[in-house]
């Protein structure tokens, strides 16, 4: 059973407790950095956004690239991150109530690790009333509960939503692409 099986508010609370335990000082030069990991994605964004289907999202792709550039220029901290943290990667455990699985370790700031969590269940937000306000509340709630800068969390969430959305669109999954890009627009 993963956190996705819980109601959203409870899942976010449990996710916050789980991810907090994961963040530790990084060992010396063992893992790549968030800047390195996102570099290839940033280079691919202009090409992904050049498709005819993506014409309306080019300004959003430009914003995502600008945000990423600023976020990687002066990272506020260096922490060992899970790298792919989201509700589906947190499973019920025996040693502890919840265990994070499938890490892609990377060194960077905590806001980067939370961005995928912000994107979780975006289809539920889209189906509910006031999705843009709900998305912003989710960022505020996570940032406040884990002492992360809201603007940095918003920036990483927008970058990851645009990058993932454009990749889905290029692969032919337009429904998922449109949902992620709409989510990015709410931010």
UniProtKB/TrEMBL annotation:
SUPFAM superfamilies: Protein kinase-like (PK-like). Signal peptide: none annotated. Keywords: Transferase. It comes from the Bacteria. InterPro entries: Kinase-like_dom_sf, NH2Glyco/OHUrea_AB-resist_kin. Coiled coil: none annotated. GO terms for biological process: secondary metabolic process. One of its GO terms (molecular function) is phosphotransferase activity, alcohol group as acceptor. The keyword Transferase applies. This is Putative phosphotransferase. It comes from Streptomyces himastatinicus ATCC 53653. The lineage of its organism: Bacteria, Bacillati, Actinomycetota, Actinomycetes, Kitasatosporales.
């Amino acid at each position: 059973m993963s956190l996705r099986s819980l109601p959203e508010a409870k899942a976010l609370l449990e996710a916050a407790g789980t991810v907090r335990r994961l963040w530790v000082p990084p060992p010396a030069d063992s893992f790549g950095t968030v800047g390195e990991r996102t570099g290839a994605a940033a280079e691919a964004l202009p090409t992904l956004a050049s498709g005819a289907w993506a014409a309306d999202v080019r300004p959003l792709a430009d914003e995502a690239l600008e945000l990423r550039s600023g976020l990687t220029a002066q990272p506020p901290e260096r922490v060992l991150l899970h790298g792919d943290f989201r509700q589906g990667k947190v499973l019920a455990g025996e040693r502890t109530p919840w265990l994070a699985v499938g890490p892609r370790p990377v060194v960077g700031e905590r806001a980067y690790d939370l961005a995928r969590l912000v994107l979780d269940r975006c289809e539920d937000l889209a189906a509910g009333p006031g999705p843009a306000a709900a998305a912003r509340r989710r960022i505020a709630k996570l940032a406040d509960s884990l002492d992360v800068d809201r603007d940095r969390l918003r920036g990483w969430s927008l970058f990851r939503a645009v990058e993932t959305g454009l990749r889905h669109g290029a692969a032919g999954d337009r429904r998922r692409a449109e949902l992620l890009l709409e989510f990015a627009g709410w931010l």
